[in-house]
Amino acid sequence: MRRKLVAGNWKMNTRRDDAVALAAALSVGLSGGSASADVIVAPPFVWLDAVASALDGSDIQLAAQNAWCDPPGAYTGEIALEMVRDVGCNWVILGHSERREMFGDTDELVGRKTAAAKQAGLGVILCVGETKDQREAGETEAVLSRQLLAGLDGLDVSETDGLVVAYEPVWAIGTGLTATSEQAESAHAHLRNEVAVRYNATVGESIRILYGGSVKPDNASELMSQSNVDGALVGGASLQAESFLAIIQAA
Ligand code: PGA
């Protein structure tokens, strides 16, 4: 049985005080335990330290939204994976479509980052997803396979523990459009099968695959009740404690 996972991607949102208040509200909201779901939040880098303190004593885990794959050195403006670990993250989100589209994260770079993150001892949420044009052209599965396999390129079967895949159709991110539960289930089943072929049936069966793209309290339950949907990667609705807690509740 795969344990559900709900991750909140705060993107480039919140001021310091909002971030700390949000983390504190989540911590209080989940103080009775989050039942059967793991919970992760991914604040902006600059608030990680403050959010880590606000989450002290709670089961909520911390993720970075990105990181660079080389060891510390002359990379102006970048953050190394070991720094991410040092500040208290045990996860990193890699390959988000906003990074791919706006910041030049190619399939190959996402693969290098994924391998380096696992070597640094971090769990990875590897994001993949097709654009609207690609879906309409019938290329969804091909795009998902390409992004997934490139992302896993440097990853040995022994490193697949703590690997999570997030299916995020680009056309559903921040648009209010959500994949239907059938579309999500079909994409997730495809991704799970690809993981099984790349590694083995056990890894395919155990890997968690999250859905992301306009997940809200009112659609979370149906999406996460699909047999291959193991949780959610939530953007906008993770910025309010009430809606994020409701999604965790649905999980
Ligand atoms: P959204 O973002 O929930 O605001 O659509 C999801 C994501 O980008 O991870």
Question: Can you characterise this structure?
Answer:
There is one protein chain. Helix 1 (16-29) packs parallel to helix 11 (241-250) and helix 10 runs parallel beside helix 11. The longest helix has 18 residues, at 181-198. The chain is α/β, with parallel strands linked by helices and 251 residues long. It is built from eleven helices and eight strands. Helix 10 links the parallel strand 7 and strand 8.
Question: What are the bound molecules?
Answer: 2-phosphoglycolic acid
Q: What global shape is seen? A: globular
Mean pLDDT: 97
Radius of gyration: 17 Å
Gap between N and C termini? 14 Å
DSSP helix count?
11
- In helices, the fraction of residues equals 40-55%
Q: Ranges with pLDDT <50 over ≥5 residues?
A: none
Total number of beta strands: 8
Percentage of residues in DSSP E strands: 15-25%
Arrangement of strands in the largest sheet: 1-2-3-4-5-6-7-8
Features:
alpha/beta; 11 helices; 8 strands; binds 2-phosphoglycolic acid; 251 residues; globular; 8-stranded parallel beta barrel
Strand and helix map with partners:
Blueprint: E1 4-9, H1 16-29, E2 37-42, H2 48-54, E3 61-64, H3 81-86, E4 91-94, H4 97-102, H5 107-119, E5 123-128, H6 132-136, H7 140-151, E6 163-167, H8 181-198, H9 201-206, E7 208-212, H10 217-224, E8 231-234, H11 241-250
Parallel strand pairs: 1-2, 1-8, 2-3, 3-4, 4-5, 5-6, 6-7, 7-8
Helix pairs in contact: 1-11, 5-7, 7-8, 10-11
The structure holds 2-phosphoglycolic acid (PGA).
